[in-house]
Please model this.
Amino acid sequence: MPNKSVSMIATQWRLALLGVLLSAVLVAIVWRLVDLCLIQPEFYQYYSDKRWQPSRVVSAERGVINDRNGQPLAISTPVLNVGMYPSILNQHPERWRELAKQLDLDYQRMAKKIRLKSERRGTFVYLKRRIPPQQGAKIMSLDIPGVATKSTYKRYYPAGEVATHLLGYTDVDDRGQEGVELAYDSHLTSIAGRRPVMLGIKQKVVRELPWEEGKQHKPGEDIDLSIDMRIQSIAHYELKKAVHKYRARAASLVLLDARTNEVLAMVNQPAANPNDRSDMDFGAFRNRAMTDLIEPGSTIKPFSVAAALESGLFDEKSSINVRPGRIKVDGKLISDAANYGDLNLSGVIKKSSNVGITRVALALPETGVRDYLSRMGMGADTGSGFPGERLGNLPNYPRWRPVQRATLAYGYGLSVTAVQLAQAYSVFASGGTKKPVSILKLEQPPMAEQVMDPKVAKQVIAMMESVTAPGGTGTQASVPGYRVAGKTGTVHKVGRNGYEDSRYIAVFAGLAPATDPRLVAVVVINDPASEKYHGGQVAAPVFSKVMAAALRLKSIAPDQAVIPMLASGSVIEGKVQ
Model:
């Protein structure tokens, strides 16, 4: 009996011990489940997602921006954003240096970031954004706990700085910040989707499951701009060369299709490459042709002459006495470069006579010139839709003093942008009609408003031809084989104490071919620091080179015969009838 009693006691002890052990195991399992589900849920989720993830965000490409010929100007390339789940990565400090080295990050700063955010359970925190897919794959192959990648896209601009002012750029989240990227952001922006997938242990997609209804990703819409990159590139090169040659502070060029007012080229200096913003100068991204205001100077005189012709008080044969080359108006001395004696309206434009245009303006009704400029679009929206475009300023005084009427007639006292001036000159080119400016490619010409007598437009074009002919102020704007009409402008810059004597803005505005205008261009050279600073010396040569290239690239027929004289090396030019 004693032996049987001892045996029973031993059995009971073994059962009790087994029960304690099983209870301990059960408690450990329950504690682990509580730890995984309540205390560290992101740990369970992280390793679970390595095998299976109900859905994954699928990014879509932002819309492509093309030129009018289909050449891509802004595209999206696939990249990866590398990030971490801080509470998980914080448990593996031995892998931090390896990770910092691969991402080219400062170790101390990264370590501090991990520790600070380690309490954020389940939160994904970016470490480095927009890295190449190859680099991202290499980092993921290290299998560092808590490190993950997310696919996205990065904007790339194949033309670099050549079209940056018009295109603008996007931020790190691919949202438009300037230019076309901002103006048409809602069209270009893509919509990310969520697609069910099965993942392997390395977070590689094992199998993509069918899309759930309404959760598909949607790429952004493509946009075709009006610019022709062939002309844009030439304009960029010529303007940059001129800025360097004349040591100018800035410059702009706008070239329009006269029939539709589509922008075929729009360039500015200085410029910056949107693909490299490591040392970003926001001033270099400013589209000065749309945002910078200038006094247009003598480029306004053709409109003052047109106002005179439409008034009926003047005609092509009217003689204007500009002797002795100067005139006082309200105590202000207005002068010409020389005493030109008697001039007709064509001569006033050809010689750019301030005295002549003053006499014309003072003979017109008080607001005659001002109202005419308003009809041309001065001080108003061009209709381009470009963000940040300035309206300029066309004054409207309750009572116009004679000196205000005079200075307005030769381009002082008002402010315009380069694109506004180009739009106004397109009125001459289109037979007196005004159309909105378009930075998008148009399928058909826009609605036009008749704002100038077609006969007057033709008369003034003929007068402006004399500017580029021998004896005119803009001979360097001529284009071999084509009749060019235009006007020079040399404007004193405004300083703290009024107009400065030795600082200028050089302007040339014109159109070609004069017999059937197809292209309109405006060139603005701001603050040239060389000995040459007149519009005919600085801006006109740029106009000539860009216009010549554009006429050739657009296959526009010459309207002037050029017959080479081989013996002398000179040429004889004659009008094509």
